[in-house]
Amino acid sequence: MGSKDVKLILYTNHRCPWAHRAHIALEELKIPFEEVIIDLDTPRTPEYLKINPRGLVPALSYNGEIIIESAIVVQFLTDAYPSHLVPTSSEPGGALRRARIAEFVDAYVSKVNSAVFGVYRAKTDEELASLVETAVTGVVKEVEPKLADANPFFGGSDKLTLAEVLTGSLVLRLKSLTKADVLPKRLWTAIEEKAPNFVKWAEAVTAHPSVTSIYDEKANIEGTKARIAKLRASA
Ligand SMILES: N[C@@H](CCC(=O)N[C@@H](CS)C(=O)NCC(=O)O)C(=O)O
């Protein structure tokens, strides 16, 4: 596993936060790969549906073996190429560290990110306010305590970890889209007031070159504005 003569192809689209997870892993692991950009604005081709019958990005080809779902793609890469990102489960303390990382990612994705992404679809001001409140509460109650020892990364690490590989693309969008007021600015200011560990960690994550490398902020802001307008028009 993980040898240099393996051929990796990543089917991706740079505006997708889930595909972005795979890019962060590949950057950090310094693995050469071929990139195939999938157009998400048109129906998927029959060729791509053979690769991923769900029609979603990302998908990874590892010597022709197809792996789908961003969390599974990233887990596979970190297992195939052992690194500083996460210990193996047989290393001393490895199983516990893996469990702590999985809990952190679960907390961020299920308690914060789901509310943040829900904001795009909010139909009323009340619904929007309630989603903002849910996201802020999720950060304060679920995520902030898990970052008490971040240095600057998860669990006292001075290097990026699997925790940041799986959340960095989401935190980057949270920061960049609240700054641009595409997501409500008060979402970020409330977090700033209440969650200092999170803010410090988020600064380090969103400044890291492996996290920022494929992110086109301007295109993402414009694309998200257009997506929100479309969602609201069809509501
Ligand atoms: N759970 C999937 C989600 C992937 C996903 O939603 N990808 C979106 C782009 S961000 C996609 O391919 N959408 C295509 C479509 O819905 O037509 C994962 O984590 O890989």
From TrEMBL:
GO terms for cellular component: cytoplasm. Pfam families: GST_N_2. Residues 94-232 form the GST C-terminal domain. SUPFAM superfamilies: GST C-terminal domain-like (SSF47616), Thioredoxin-like (SSF52833). It comes from the Eukaryota. Residues 6-85 form the GST N-terminal domain. Belongs to the GST superfamily. This is Thioredoxin-like protein. It comes from Achaetomium macrosporum.
